[in-house]
C-alpha cells in the first residue's frame, strides 16, 4: 500500500498539472480574445468614419467616395425574409413531428443522423445543389426566391435540432397534467409544449438567420450579382390585390458579396467601403445574437414550472 507521503505527493503532482492545464487554457482564451478584439478595433477604425446616411442610400459606383450599399442591404433584407418564410415553419413543424409524433425506430434514427450531418455540411455544397435544382431544373433563375430557398435549406437542420432540444427540455409533468385534464395530444402541444419551448425555438431561429446573413459561397454559386444599381420590384402596388410578388424573381446582391467585390479592387478607398460594410454586418450579427439571448432569458423568467 502507498504511504501517506506518496499519496500527498501524488495529489500535489495532480494539482500542479491541473494548474498547468488551467493556465494553458486561460492563455489560449486570452490570445483568442486579444486577436479578435484587435481585428474588430482595426475594422472599426477603418470603416466607421465611412458609415454615413449617404452610404446607406447610395448605389454602388465606380467612384469609391460615391459608392453605397443600398442595393446590398435591401437585397440582404429581402433574402432573409424569404429564408425565414421558407425555413421557420418547415423547421419547427419537422422538429415537433420528430420529437412528439414519430416512432422511435431505425427509420427515425436514420433521419435524425442525416439531419445532424446536414447541419455540418459546408455551405458551398448547398449552393451547388441549389444551382442544379432551383436554377436549372425548376427554372427559378438567379433570383431572390432561389437565394431564399438555398439559405432556407442551409439553416433548416439547425432549426430542426434546436426545436427538438427546446421541446425535449420541457418536463413530462406538463404533458401528463395536460392529458389528465382531458386534452388531446395536439392541444397539449399547441397550448403547453410550444409556448414553453418558444424561447429556445426563437433563439435557434435567430442564431440560424444570423449565420445565413453572412453566407457568401452558396449565393455566388447560384449567380448573385456583384454589381447591381437598382432595387427589387416594390412589394406593394396600387392595383388590387395591392400585393406584388414579382420581387421574388428579381436579381439581387447581398452585403457579403458587395464586400467581396470591393476587396477585389486594388484601390484603398474601396477597401474602406468594404470595412464599413463589415462593421455593419458585424453589428447586425451581434444585435441578432443579443436579441436571441434576451428572448431566451425573458421566456425563461416568464415560463416557470
H/E series: HHHHHHHHHHH
Helix content: over 70%
Number of strands: 0
Low-confidence stretches: none
Q: Distance between the terminal alpha carbons, to the nearest Å?
A: 51 Å
Give me the oligomer status. Answer: single chain
CATH topology of the largest domain: MetI-like fold
CATH architecture of the largest domain: Orthogonal Bundle
User: Approximately what portion of the residues adopt beta-strand conformation?
Assistant: under 5%
Structure annotation, total helices: 11
- The dominant shape is globular
Q: Going by CATH, what is the homologous superfamily of the largest domain? A: MetI-like
Question: How would you characterize the largest beta sheet?
Answer: none
How does the helix and strand content classify structurally? Answer: mainly alpha
Would you tell me the overall average pLDDT?
A: 85
CATH class term of the largest domain: Mainly Alpha
Q: From the alpha-carbon coordinates, what is the Rg to the nearest angstrom?
A: 25 Å
- As for the number of domains, it is 2
Descriptive account of the structure:
With 305 residues, this protein is mainly alpha-helical. The protein folds into two domains: 4-50; 53-302, MetI-like fold (Orthogonal Bundle), CATH 1.10.3720. Helices cover 72% and strands 0% of the residues. The protein has helices at 4-47, 53-57, 70-101, 106-119, 123-137, 144-168, 172-180, 185-212, 217-221, 255-263, 268-302. α7 (172-180) runs antiparallel to α8 and α10 runs antiparallel to α11. It is globular. It starts with a helix and ends with a helix. The model has no long low-confidence stretch (mean pLDDT 85).
Amino acid at each position: 500500500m502507498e504511504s501517506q507521503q506518496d499519496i500527498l505527493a501524488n495529489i500535489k503532482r495532480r494539482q500542479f498539472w491541473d494548474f498547468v492545464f488551467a493556465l494553458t487554457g486561460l492563455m489560449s482564451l486570452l490570445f483568442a480574445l486579444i486577436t479578435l478584439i484587435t481585428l474588430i478595433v482595426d475594422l472599426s477604425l477603418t470603416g466607421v468614419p465611412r458609415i454615413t446616411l449617404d452610404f446607406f442610400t447610395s448605389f454602388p459606383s465606380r467612384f469609391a467616395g460615391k459608392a453605397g450599399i443600398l442595393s446590398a442591404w435591401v437585397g440582404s433584407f429581402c433574402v432573409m425574409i424569404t429564408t425565414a418564410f421558407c425555413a421557420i415553419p418547415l423547421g419547427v413543424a419537422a422538429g415537433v413531428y420528430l420529437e412528439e409524433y414519430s416512432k422511435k425506430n431505425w427509420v427515425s434514427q436514420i433521419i435524425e443522423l442525416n439531419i445532424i450531418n446536414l447541419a455540418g455540411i459546408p455551405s458551398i455544397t448547398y449552393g451547388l445543389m441549389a444551382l442544379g435544382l432551383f436554377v436549372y431544373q425548376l427554372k427559378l433563375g438567379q433570383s431572390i426566391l432561389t437565394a431564399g430557398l438555398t439559405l432556407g435549406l442551409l439553416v433548416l437542420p439547425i432549426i430542426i435540432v434546436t426545436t427538438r432540444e427546446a421541446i425535449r427540455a420541457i418536463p413530462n409533468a406538463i404533458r401528463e397534467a395536460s392529458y389528465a385534464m382531458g386534452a388531446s395530444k395536439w392541444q397539449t402541444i399547441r397550448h403547453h409544449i410550444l409556448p414553453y419551448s418558444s424561447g429556445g425555438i426563437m433563439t435557434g431561429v435567430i442564431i440560424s438567420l444570423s449565420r445565413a446573413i453572412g453566407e457568401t459561397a452558396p449565393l455566388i454559386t447560384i449567380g448573385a450579382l456583384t454589381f447591381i444599381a437598382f432595387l427589387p420590384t416594390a412589394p406593394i402596388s396600387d392595383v388590387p390585390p395591392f400585393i406584388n410578388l414579382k420581387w421574388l424573381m428579381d436579381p439581387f446582391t447581398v452585403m457579403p458579396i458587395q464586400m467581396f467585390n470591393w476587396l477585389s479592387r486594388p484601390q484603398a478607398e474601396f477597401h474602406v467601403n468594404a470595412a464599413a460594410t463589415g462593421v455593419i454586418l458585424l453589428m447586425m450579427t451581434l444585435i441578432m445574437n443579443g436579441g436571441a439571448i434576451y428572448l431566451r432569458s425573458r421566456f425563461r423568467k416568464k415560463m416557470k414550472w
